[in-house]
Amino acid sequence: MLPRDRAGADTLRQSLSWPVFQRLLSKLIDTPVDLALPKFKLVGEYKLKRPLSELGASKAFDGGHADFSGITGSRDLVIDDVVHKAV
Fold it and tell me: Per the database record, which ranges form the Serpin domain (predicted)?
């Protein structure tokens, strides 16, 4: 559902009550359309050290408390940062 003009979006939003929405839905008809979208790329990068620490994993980032000896056999391993990157 689109407003007739760009400035009409706010007017549409303000007038869109449930009865108005139901009335509009009852008048809809299926119409085939050709849709072209430009090629685009989304990239996201999120640093997770702070959120993971706040969720209780702070010892993993602290050299005095981290214990990854099950992985390396020593307690020298500590996590410096965690970054999630999606392309």
Answer: 1-87
**Which tens digits make up the pLDDT trace of 23-64?**
988 999 999 999 999 999 999 999 999 999 999 999 999 999
- Taking the C-alpha atoms of residue 65 and residue 72, their distance in angstroms, rounded to an integer, is 15
| Cα–Cα distance, 27 to 15 (Å, whole number) | 17
Tokens of 24: 């509009």
User: Higher pLDDT residue, 8 or 85?
Assistant: 85
Going by C-alpha positions, the residue among 26, 16, 71 that lies closest to residue 3 is: 16
Q: Token pair for residue 39?
A: 């090629």
Whether 86 and 43 have beta carbons less than 8 Å apart is answered as: yes
How do the domains of the chain map onto residue ranges? 44-86
The letter for the amino acid at 19 is P
